[in-house]
Amino acid sequence: MTRTPRRRNIAPPREDVLAAVMATVAERGLDGLTMAGLGREVQMSSGHLLYYFRTKDELLLQTLEWSEARLGAERRALLAGPGTARERLDAYIALYVPDGHRDPHWTLWLEVWNRSQDADDDARARQAAIEDAWHGDLTELLADGIARGEFTTVDTDRAATRLRALMDGFSVHVTVGIPGTGRERVLDEMRTYADETLTPPAVTRATDVAPAS
User: Fold this and answer.
1) CA 158 – CA 135 distance, rounded (Å)
2) Do 135 and 161 touch, CB atoms closer than 8 A?
3) Model confidence, pTM
4) DSSP letter at 98?
5) What is the pLDDT of residues 58-115, one digit of tens each?
């Protein structure tokens, strides 16, 4: 008797799983993300998902790392592109700030941050690596602006820390949908803050100086 060969349960590529996680978060939010539901999306059992990712926390962190890798490539391209340092700073801020209420990337970030209270050292180090990449690119951009004379001389590490803290706070408000803090309002506030803290003081021209009496 000829036996029908058994179908092997071949797991989909890791990126397909992570893309399905992000799509689910975008469509149904984190409450709609379950291991069973995700398994149906990618044609894997929840047991197989746990075999590959171990825990839901690990699945979320890997999805965030995957999303950040894509954003990182976009960020590096815009920072290396043409334009003034200030134009590139505005582009950096626009990339950082969420697109709107329930932005999937930021929704995922907030969940990973929340879960990090009980995370192990490896997970914390991986989260820190994401933060450090954004911070390092911003400090380099500020240093370039200072060298070009576009920005006033500041401690670039300290200025980057403050800029990102302000963006983080605003971004949380946008993501959770606090009234009055939409994306455009936040971008306008960030541009104003950059003007106030980075614009070099006006240089007094010789013709503006009153002659001595």
Assistant:
1) 10
2) yes
3) 0.86
4) -
5) 999 999 999 999 999 999 999 999 999 999 999 999 999 999 999 999 999 999 999 9
